[in-house]
Amino acid sequence: MESKVAMDVLVVGDANPDLVLRGDVRPRFGQEEQLLDAADLVLGGSAAITAMGCARLGLRTGLLAAVGADVFGAFTRERLEERGVRLLPPAADVDATPTGLSVILSAPGDRAILTLPGTIPALRPEDVTDALIAGSRHVHVSSLFLQPGLHAGLAGVFKRAKALGVTTSLDTNWDPSGRWTGLDEILAVTDVFLPNAAELLAVTGAETTEVAAARLVALGTTVVLKDGARGGRAWWPESATATATATAPGLAVDVVDTTGAGDSFNAGFLAARLDGRTVAESLGWAARAGSLSTRAAGGTAAQATPEELIPSAR
User: Fold this and answer.
1) 121 and 90 in contact (C-beta within 8 Å)?
2) pLDDT tens, residue by residue, 150-189
3) Which of 169, 104, 165, 101 is nearest to 133 (CA)?
């Protein structure tokens, strides 16, 4: 099948503005007014931040996401265009639906996220066509639990990708419902799973990350764990009976905002793997990319460049 697009990575998922608030962000009701240290309107959505990071690292990047025709949609399109990410719309007409929006209450070491789904849930499995898959070297999916329609058929999408010789990765992000259901079939056909520790334990029901990773590696899935300031860890099938492991430290940086650090971690890993690096080398790229992204507000302003990652990776 001849493809109409040529991409290193096709990212599938959410794209929306993030309003990042810093300072005295813990709400106190009773009509109290609180003064903030900073407020930044930036591009958000796990998929969009991952796509922006991939593009900054030199990958030809497409983003399949639903964005409305409102002012927030225009903002999202402009930011993606500035970085050279090609926005690919779904089949459904979402112009009349408000673009999704997240408000990030960012405190040192933690954050809370308030999200209006808007257009985010509009994607369906059939939007990820064989032509899009075949025109890509890799397909990455983010924010699965915000997209129930896509979730229901993602295993089939990944099976089609495998049949077309295209690798896949998944970052579910958090499940707002707390149920963490419907992943077994998907993970069984996922090449790389990119959770944080809390997500990995929730997905598997295991008591430790080692046990959780072992269960997924037994399916043939490579597990790449985002471990905050500590960097990252990875487990992958070395042979039919052996599991390989690696760790990589993060970088010491002056942290401004951790929003999107995990998505930049994803981008670093994908860029390295698509450059032919080993899993262990790619984990190093990922840990550094995640750390560097925290130098500015939002997830995209301080994302790593190739020059910041490649010299130290060799």
Assistant:
1) no
2) 999 999 999 999 999 999 999 999 999 999 999 999 999 9
3) 165
Q: Is residue 41 part of a domain?
A: no
Q: Give the domain CATH number at 210.
A: 3.40.1190.20
In this predicted model, what pLDDT tens digit does every residue of 59-93 receive, in sequence order?
Answer: 999 999 999 999 999 999 999 999 999 999 999 99
Whether 271 maps to a domain, the answer reads yes
Helix (H), strand (E) at residue 310: helix 306-313
Number of folded domains that form the chain: 1
- Structural contact between residues 173 and 160, judged by C-beta atoms closer than 8 angstroms: no
Q: Which position has the token pair 């993030």?
A: 18
Range of the domain at 92: 7-14+46-98+118-309
User: ∠ CA(278), CA(279), CA(283), 5° rounding?
Assistant: 115
Burial of 164 (0-12, 13-18, 19+ CB in 10 A): middle
Please provide the DSSP assignment of 19-75 as one string. Answer: EEEEES-S--TTT----EEEEEEEEE-HHHHHHHHHHHTT--EEEE----SSHHHHH
In a domain, 107, yes or no: no
State phi, psi for 136 to the nearest 5 degrees.
-125, 155
Mean pLDDT of 112-140: 97
Round to whole Å and give the CA distance between 295 and 43: 16
Which one, of 25, 52, 45, 27, lies nearest residue 37 by Cα?
Answer: 25
First and final C-alpha spacing in the chain = 37
Q: Tell me the C-alpha distance between 223 and 215, whole Å.
A: 10
pLDDT in tens, 229-251: 999 999 999 887 789 999 999 99
Q: How far is Cα of residue 2 from the mean position of the Cα atoms in its chain?
A: 28
User: Quick one: the chain helix, strand, coil %, rounded to 5?
Assistant: 35, 25, 40
pLDDT score for 111: 84
d(CA 235, CA 102): 32
pLDDT, residue 164, reads 97
